[in-house]
Design a protein that fits this description.
157 residues, alpha+beta, 7-stranded mixed sheet, 7 strands
Length: 157
């Protein structure tokens, strides 16, 4: 039986589609997050720079890209960034497969830890990441804010 979708490494020519996925997937958070998500302001140029700075994986089927996740190699871990799946494709295991791709890349690079950030306000996300084995690492605060605005979570591979 063929898989309903595939995960592959992103290439620069995916930048336009990735930019649109990010904007559309994060639209539901507009007005709900303080500070607002920077995903709303992503451009193709920014996405291309992020691909060079680290990389990304995309989820697609029948030529339609509907999910993405970025990763960046840090000194002692791989940072998982901007996990995004279009609402029309949620509930099919896409996020989990994208996350597994990043974790696999971390292992390939000799990293034993993956970290990610999640907004304090998105408590359902905290629970989902916990089910995937991610635990509290630290609090983070966006520039210009006096108190924490996000959690840093970590998974030991």
């Amino acid at each position: 039986m063929p898989e309903p979708f595939r995960i592959r490494e992103a290439v620069p020519t995916d930048a336009e589609r990735i930019t649109q996925v990010l904007r559309d997937a994060f639209e539901e958070y507009r007005g709900r997050l303080d500070p607002p998500s920077s995903a709303h302001d992503k451009t193709e140029a920014v996405v291309r720079r992020e691909l060079v700075d680290g990389g990304a994986f995309v989820a697609e089927a029948d030529g339609i890209l509907f999910g993405c996740v970025f990763f960046h190699l840090k000194g002692d871990h791989l940072y998982l960034d901007r996990l995004a799946v279009l609402p029309s494709h949620r509930g099919q295991g896409v996020s989990l497969r994208l996350m597994e791709a990043v974790e696999s890349r971390a292992r390939e690079l000799g990293q034993t830890r993956v970290r990610l950030s999640v907004r304090l306000a998105l408590t359902s996300h905290h629970a989902w990441y916990a089910r995937q084995g991610y635990v509290f690492h630290s609090h983070g605060t966006h520039a210009g804010y006096a108190s924490p605005t996000f959690l840093v979570l970590e998974k030991t591979l």
